[in-house]
Amino acid sequence: MNTANARLGDCVVVYFESSQLYKLSFLLYVFPVILMIVGAMIGERMAENFHGNPSAYSAFFGFFCFFGAMAVVKLMDKKARKTGKYRPEIVRIIKKAGIGSTEPSSAPCQSNAGV
Question: Where are the domains of the chain?
């Protein structure tokens, strides 16, 4: 969201709530791995019940759960894009681009941590 009415080439301050960042990071990086491990454990148990190869069952169920988790992530991404819930917000312009410039500035913006 661009509440500061920034233009291309402006140096800006971007706000993104930390709790949202942690939630999205968990959903994208940790959730699929947890489901993959759970799927592998289920596959191992299924192999015992059906007298199959534990490695093959673990691999199949592990990957099945992993890709299922990625499908959930993709669906949540589509929903979030429609609502705009997890979009960063441009809150302030630090430095305006040159007058009449449509190209980004060649000099990078200086990072001021904690601003």
Answer: 1-16+88-115, 19-87
